[in-house]
């Protein structure tokens, strides 16, 4: 699918972003291994999360869709999953494959997890190695570095493991496997990553604690079903934040956004770039912070983004790169090597598209430099099959007078199926 975008400038009004992808995945996974029925309100009906639903249905879990945005998961307890017939297919979803690997490591049956072309190229050794240390038998392409993975779980033992890369998916896989291990599992993080698994496990009665970079889990006999209300996804909201931040005289209220501090790096960066971002109506729902975010565009300047903030905004770099192209001065993004192993090589995808628009960009192994503030031209852009690249470039195109195109834009369905309609609704012609 090719999407044509007529450059417009003002972004006005109110928007509710789609439900959080990370939390939606976890609600099905943790709901499936809890006792009783978990009701999930505002579940994300998008391709990635539907892959997780399919995988658990194949393991005998009843999952019902209710209305347009809720699901119920009939949990069967920690030992209630059954051996699937055929492969479990994770599609494009790294979260499905890596977290599922953790749960499968604790089961006493063998299962195969496969993915699409992009997921089959993404590194799996980062979960396979520590799960093997816990006692799981896992095989995969190239010695277990890539999917498909064949996982034969069994008697696991707790380990003390320092994450070599900052990854919430790896941390979560180990914590979920830790539910089935003998003794305590300790995951050491040098940089704090999103803690949705810890929050949800605690809500469901798990024994889990987090202190000073050490996350500890010990097995419990049972997890108990809970109602989960999923907040809006700040990673989807980020595209609208940037659209408003770069639009002249723009003002946008984004409602019910998840504001977990491990995810709010985008707000810190936009403020540092000179944008007004106000938080209103803060509350805590299902253990997660939620609030409304008001963004007012009034001109941006370049910034340096590196080090510890990176895990707090890693998925937002495509959107931030677009903000940087419209900002005055240089923006430097470093310590972001993880971008090379996302749904596409995001450093390459961003550089390719921004150059087409007429931005001066330099590529580094672990980041990029963007010289902002130049007059940009409408162009034909490429998603590289990556949802966040398609959305970021659509936001850029919205602010450049003239007609741009985004090729292979159907990938927005991975996380935000109604993205283009929503973007059109909140933008006004010059
Ligand atoms: C996610 C963790 C991050 C993030 C991904 C979702 C999660 O990946 O980029 O979109 O739900 O735990 P890594 O763990 O690979 O950093």
From TrEMBL:
Phosphoenolpyruvate binds at residues 21, 94, 122, 169, 346, 388. Residues 6-423 form the Enolpyruvate transferase domain. The active site is at 315 (proton acceptor). It is an enzyme of class 2 (transferase). It catalyses: 3-phosphoshikimate + phosphoenolpyruvate = 5-O-(1-carboxyvinyl)-3-phosphoshikimate + phosphate. It comes from the Bacteria. It holds the Pfam family EPSP_synthase. GO terms for biological process: amino acid biosynthetic process; aromatic amino acid family biosynthetic process; chorismate biosynthetic process. The keyword Mitochondrion does not apply. Monomer. This is 3-phosphoshikimate 1-carboxyvinyltransferase. The gene is aroA1.
């Amino acid at each position: 699918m090719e999407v044509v975008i007529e450059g417009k400038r003002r972004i006005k009004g109110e928007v509710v972003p789609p439900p959080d992808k990370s939390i939606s995945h976890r609600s099905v996974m943790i709901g499936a291994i809890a006792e009783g029925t978990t009701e999930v309100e505002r579940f994300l009906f998008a391709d990635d999360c539907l892959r997780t639903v399919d995988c658990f249905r194949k393991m005998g879990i009843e999952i019902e869709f209710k209305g347009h945005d809720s699901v119920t998961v009939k949990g069967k307890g920690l030992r209630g999953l059954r051996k699937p017939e055929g492969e479990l297919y994770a599609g494009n979803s790294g979260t499905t494959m890596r977290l599922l690997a953790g749960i499968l490591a604790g089961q006493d049956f063998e299962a195969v997890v496969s993915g699409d072309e992009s997921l089959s190229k993404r590194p799996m050794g980062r979960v396979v190695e520590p799960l093997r240390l816990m006692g799981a038998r896992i095989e995969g392409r190239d010695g277990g570095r890539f999917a498909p993975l064949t996982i034969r779980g069994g008697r696991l033992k707790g380990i003390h493991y320092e994450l070599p890369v900052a990854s919430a998916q790896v941390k979560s896989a180990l914590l979920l496997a830790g539910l089935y291990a003998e003794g305590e599992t300790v995951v050491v993080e040098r940089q704090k990553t999103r803690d949705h698994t810890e929050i949800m496990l605690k809500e469901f009665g798990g024994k889990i604690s987090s202190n000073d970079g050490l996350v500890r889990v010990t097995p419990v006999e049972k997890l108990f079903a809970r109602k989960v209300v999923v907040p809006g996804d700040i990673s989807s909201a980020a595209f609208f934040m940037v659209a408003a931040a770069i639009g002249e005289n723009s003002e946008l209220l984004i409602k019910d956004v998840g504001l977990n501090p491990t995810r709010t790096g985008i707000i810190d960066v936009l403020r540092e770039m000179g944008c007004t971002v106000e938080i209103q109506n803060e509350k805590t729902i299902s253990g997660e912070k939620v609030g409304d975010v008001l963004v007012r565009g009034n001109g941006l300047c370049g910034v340096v983004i590196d080090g510890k903030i990176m895990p707090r905004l890693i998925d937002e770099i495509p959107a931030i790169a677009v903000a940087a192209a419209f900002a005055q001065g240089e923006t430097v993004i470093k310590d972001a090597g993880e971008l090379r192993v996302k749904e596409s090589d995001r450093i390459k995808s961003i550089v390719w598209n921004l150059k087409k628009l007429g931005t001066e960009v330099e590529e580094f192994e672990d980041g990029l430099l963007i010289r902002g503030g130049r007059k940009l031209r409408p162009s034909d852009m490429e998603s590289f099959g990556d949802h966040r690249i398609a959305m970021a470039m659509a936001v850029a195109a919205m602010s450049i007078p003239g007609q741009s195109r985004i090729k292979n834009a159907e990938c927005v369905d991975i996380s935000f199926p109604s993205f283009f309609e929503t973007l059109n609704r909140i933008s006004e012609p010059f």
